[in-house]
Design goal:
- The chain has helices spanning 6-29, 31-35, 41-47, 59-70, 74-77, 79-85, 92-117, 121-128, 133-163.
- The radius of gyration is 26 Å and the shape is extended.
- It folds into three domains: 1-49; 56-118, no CATH class; 121-167.
- It is built from nine helices and no strands.
Length: 179
């Protein structure tokens, strides 16, 4: 007899929808957020009944995506080498200082600005001030350059992987012709 009647479930859903609507109304009426909106943007957003932007499926999906963007190929390829070259465990002291003083605050700032503006890099920096439009363009270009480099490295790795399946390796046979 602990079942919740259907009327209570519907009322609970309606209460949750009203709470979310109240939060959205607060965000739109907040002076700080309003200062970062473009002219006429509030009218456009109020006309929409659904959100056109895609949302994360859940908190776990977002956390995994954030970790995936923070941990790159250099963590496995270059970082151990640098630790060995510059003093082993001693290298962790400046690394941890840089992580906590620069890395984490900048990541939280990036996530917070993205949450506030609900836009991409260019829109966020242009929303702060139109003069920062170039900063947004530079961040998009740098992401493009890094992705191009990683794609090249993955392609080279795949080529060597499939070449290693050949029964005769190119370096295992001595060719008689000299350069």
């Amino acid at each position: 007899m602990d079942q919740i009647p259907e009327a209570d479930t519907g009322a609970k859903k309606a209460k949750t929808v009203e709470e979310n609507k109240g939060m959205v109304d607060f965000m739109h009426s907040n002076g700080c957020v309003k200062a970062f909106r473009d002219e006429g943007e509030d009218e456009i957003k109020s006309d929409r009944t659904t959100n056109d932007r895609q949302l994360w499926a859940g908190a776990c999906t977002f956390i995994m995506a954030a970790i995936g963007s923070a941990i790159g190929l250099g963590n496995f390829w270059k970082f151990p080498y640098l630790c060995y070259k510059w003093g082993g465990g001693t290298f962790f002291i400046p690394y941890l200082c840089a992580l906590f003083v620069l890395g984490l605050p900048m990541m939280l700032l990036e996530l917070g600005l993205g949450q506030l503006f609900q836009r991409g890099d260019i829109g966020v920096f242009r929303g702060i001030t139109p003069r920062f439009y170039g900063v947004g363009l530079a961040s998009v270009f740098s992401a493009f350059a890094i992705n191009t480099f990683y794609t090249y490295l993955i392609g080279i790795s795949a080529a060597y992987f499939f070449a290693a399946m050949n029964p005769i390796m190119p370096w295992s046979v001595m060719h008689s012709k000299a350069w």
